[in-house]
Specification:
Layout: H1 7-20, H2 25-32, H3 36-44, H4 58-66, H5 73-78, H6 102-108, E1 113-120, E2 129-135, H7 142-164
Antiparallel strand pairs: 1-2
Helix pairs in contact: 1-3, 2-3
């Protein structure tokens, strides 16, 4: 029964696991692609509007994965047990896409990669650079992939001409 579940206990367990990693609430929020408010609510054991939680949310499940709890750990804690850690917490490892916006990260995980390149904005390897990753639309057909490659080929030549001579004006 939902009312028998101890949401405050779950919140304390999450806070303890977070501190053991160690991460701040802000860092957890960034990794989960949410604001700090839901993290605070989860750790408080009450929704941000002050009402009791009525179900396990996707953010809670993501939080559990972040601190490497087993899939059933949330239910175990809610029922009065302890969470089980299955490996070194993901949070303890550097995030491969740290610093990217959630929108960019989402795009990187959608569609198929058509091509990628690095364009240098100066003559030296240490100069600034632009990283371009070309993705197809979701469930693109072979024809759509071929068209995406043609469009990218034109755009790539244009971008390369801009980056090779900063004073050049692009052709229209």
């Amino acid at each position: 029964m939902e009312r028998d579940r101890d949401w405050v206990r779950l919140g304390r367990a999450f806070a303890e696991a977070r501190k053991g990693v160690p991460l701040t609430q802000e860092e957890v929020a960034e990794r989960l692609h949410v604001s700090r408010t839901p993290v605070q609510a989860i750790e408080r054991g009450r929704q941000s509007n002050g009402k009791n939680f009525t179900k396990v949310t996707s953010t809670m499940r993501s939080y559990a994965r972040l601190v490497c709890w087993t899939e059933d750990s949330i239910d175990q804690v809610l029922a009065g047990g302890d969470p089980r850690v299955i490996e070194t917490p993901e949070a303890a490892r550097p995030h491969p896409l740290a610093g990217l916006s959630p929108a960019v990260e989402m795009e990187l995980h959608s569609g198929e990669t058509v091509d990628q390149t690095v364009l240098h904005l100066g003559p030296n390897e240490s100069d600034a650079r632009v990283v371009v990753i070309v993705k197809s639309g979701e469930n693109a057909t072979k024809e759509e992939m071929d068209e995406a490659m043609r469009q990218w080929s034109r755009a790539r030549r244009h971008l390369q001409s801009i980056t090779s001579d900063p004073e050049a004006t692009p052709d229209s």
